[in-house]
Design goal:
- The chain is an alpha+beta fold.
- The chain has a domain of 105 residues: Hepatocyte Growth Factor (3-Layer(bba) Sandwich).
- Helix content is 13%, strand content 18%.
- The chain is built from four helices and twelve strands, in the order H-E-E-H-H-E-E-E-E-E-E-E-H-E-E-E.
- Strands 2-4-3-5-1-8-12-10-11-9 form a ten-stranded antiparallel β-sheet. A two-stranded antiparallel ribbon has the order 6-7.
- Strand 6 and strand 7 form a beta hairpin.
- The radius of gyration is 19 Å and the shape is globular.
- The protein binds 2-acetamido-2-deoxy-beta-D-glucopyranose (3 copies).
- Keywords: Signal.
Length: 290
């Protein structure tokens, strides 16, 4: 009997913590990251354009030797290597590359795929990997290239973790509470808005409330929507429609950027991970539960 009781208790505990399963590695990518690697398919030469990041990933899966894909998601175009200006003709270009995958169990956050652009430089590229047994993620913010502080604050009943960011009404500064681990400037510090963001492809994350409906708000890229969320007080989830043919079968949703609220520690996909073609979601500068 005691064994049964313990089992029952365990079962109850498990059912109370209804956490969504971790997203499969196949839907995880990083926005605002061009990636290094030996070129397997030159998108310029091959005219490889793909309608979505997921299609670029599939094209990598279908191509022998490819384990890194780089896709131009920004509607305004992407910055080619060695240049500083956006090239509109690169929109939807899909580059396929190979890079040596990390050793099993190695600490790899932010190191594979190897970023080609600095974290605070916007290039419009999004990238991901098809390497086996590996889940991608954006790097932790580091001193030197972004805010030199990590902020933790509470708002609207939620804990916000991650790097500091512009907050509306505070101008170009980080808002940092006393919880900030490094607050050497009295809580305010210059901060680059552009950062790499971990994203979930073809996924619409569920919300408890909507802060800014995408019906009235657009973004040029996933990192743009991610940044809008970071600079909106109380936002901790965002969802952006990347597909020019529309999302949810509705063409006008293209570029919509929804700023939302939900438990950032336990994001729940509305139709399962990968079940909402065209939508790209992220958790606001908060570590994804992976
Ligand atoms: C990848 O291969 C599958 C099966 O052969 C095919 O259905 C799909 O269209 C291919 N995708 C791309 C992007 O080439
Ligand atoms: C991936 O993990 C599985 C199970 O742990 C293992 O059998 C396989 O060899 C791994 N693949 C690679 C490429 O490391
Ligand atoms: C989405 O969130 C709402 C409000 O918290 C909840 O009622 C609903 O069951 C959730 N749906 C899914 C699919 O998680």
């Amino acid at each position: 009997m005691p064994v049964l009781a313990v089992l029952l208790l365990l079962a109850l505990t498990a059912s109370v913590q209804l956490h969504a399963a971790a997203p499969p590695a196949s839907v995880v990518a990083v926005a605002n990251r061009d990636a290094e690697g030996a070129i397997v398919l030159d998108a310029d030469e091959a005219h490889n354009f793909q309608p979505s990041a997921a299609a670029c990933r599939d094209s990598c899966l279908n191509t022998t030797g490819c384990n890194v894909w780089v896709w131009c998601a920004a509607v305004s175009g992407c910055v080619p290597g060695g240049s500083y200006t956006r090239d509109q003709r690169r929109y939807q270009q899909c580059w396929l590359k190979y890079d040596t995958p990390p050793k099993q169990g190695a600490s790899t956050r932010g190191k594979f795929p190897r970023p080609k652009n600095s974290a605070d430089t916007a290039t419009g590229w999004m990238s991901g990997t098809t390497a086996a047994n590996f889940t991608d993620s954006a790097p932790f913010p580091e001193k030197g290239y972004s805010c030199s502080c990590v902020s933790t604050y509470q708002y609207g009943g939620y804990n916000f973790e991650g790097m500091c960011a512009h907050i509306q009404d505070y101008g170009s500064a980080c808002i940092v509470t006393t919880n900030c681990r490094e607050s050497s400037y009295g809580g305010m510090q210059g901060c680059s808005g552009t950062q790499p963001c971990t994203v979930l492809l073809d996924t619409d994350l569920n919300e408890t409330s909507i802060i800014t409906p995408g019906d009235y708000n657009t973004a040029d890229s996933a990192e743009d929507c991610c940044y809008q969320c970071a600079s909106t007080q109380g936002c901790n989830l965002w969802t952006w429609c990347v597909d020019p043919t529309g999302c949810d079968g509705e063409r006008y949703r293209f570029r919509q950027c929804w700023l939302k609220q939900a438990d950032p520690k336990n994001p729940q996909p509305k139709k399962g991970y990968g079940g909402s073609p065209g939508w790209i979601s992220g958790v606001r500068l908060t570590w994804m539960p992976m």
